[in-house]
Amino acid sequence: MPPSLFPAASALLGVLLDRLLGEPRRCHPLVGFGRLADAAERFFRAGAPGHPLGNRLSGLAAWLMIVAPFVALAAWFAHPVLDALLLWLALGGKSLGEHARAVAAPLAAGDLATAREQVGMIVSRDTTQLDADGVATAAVESVLENGNDAVFGALFWFFVAGGAGALLFRLANTLDAMWGYKDARRVYFGWAAARIDDVLNYVPARLTALTYALLGDARGALACWREQAHAWESPNAGPVMAAGAGALKVGLGGTASYHGEIEVRPHLGSGAAPTAADIGRAVTLVERGQWLWLGLFLVWSAAHA
Are residues 154 and 170 in contact, defined by beta-carbon separation less than 8 angstroms? Predict the structure, then answer.
């Protein structure tokens, strides 16, 4: 095999490992990384919220301290097999589909209590009082947004920088999830983690939105992206979810409860609220997009062999 095809072969192997095995059930490296992140926060963060500039700089130092060495080692020991393993660990496509279908099945069967419990495992909002439309909306939003975070972002950075790139993206995304909240404890300390994640996600998010448009109702998706994405709080989730909702012809957003506080979010998409069947359609959209990206990378690699 020509060396120029090694990255494509590694990408294919990494995706197949994710499809066959999913995320490791036991001894996942990210569990250990999470403990390291907790220890780093305790060591570096001074107060809650602490000094605005001091804790921002401390958060950046902590981020560099626990991310840079792992990414540097991955780049130093780069090998097609290692790259494939790192991509597998960075991907979460199979897990995303499993969690989503665990919501869709009881919802379709009329078991709202189980559906609420299952969707509560993949979203941060309060799900105990959701009706069927609310459960389906939460699940579809999670699938579309995490399609970027768990699949396309990792693939993009793998295509750019191999296994080290995929590892960088996954670790940055993990730290954003742990430190990026604007609560009293992390509003300053988590600033760097949130901004770095925004930067790393900027291009992948827009390619994800384009992918959703190409594989769904393209005209509706592009219109929703253009007209609605700017109203969403997150600069990257807005295009992804607006285009995804438009591609599926469903309506997302609206009222949601987070930690006891009601938040009225902008409307995204077009059409009625999603149903249990639309959860599966969202999963299919992400899965088809993954294979499209992989196919294009394989073709590009073969053309440059």
Answer: yes
CB atoms within 10 A of CB 230: 12
Burial of 152 (0-12, 13-18, 19+ CB in 10 A): buried
Q: What's the Cα-to-Cα distance from 22 to each of 18, 25, 90, 111, rounded to whole Å?
A: 4, 8, 11, 27
CA-to-CA distance for 35 and 189, rounded, in angstroms? 17
DSSP letter for each residue of 225-258: HHHHGGGSSSTTHHHHHHHHHHHHT-EEEEEEEE
**Cα 8 to the chain's mean position, in Å?**
22
Tens digits of residue pLDDT in 233-287:
899 999 999 999 999 999 999 888 776 778 888 999 998 999 999 999 999 999 9
Q: How far apart are CA 197 and CA 171, in angstroms?
A: 9
Distance (Å, rounded) from C-alpha 248 to C-alpha 252?
A: 10
Rounded Cα–Cα distance for residues 62 and 96 (Å) = 29
C-alpha span between 21 and 80 (Å, rounded): 19
- Tens of pLDDT, residue by residue over 24-78, are 877 788 889 999 999 999 999 998 888 899 999 999 999 999 999 999 999 999 9
DSSP 259-286: TTEEEEEEEEESSSPP-HHHHHHHHHHH
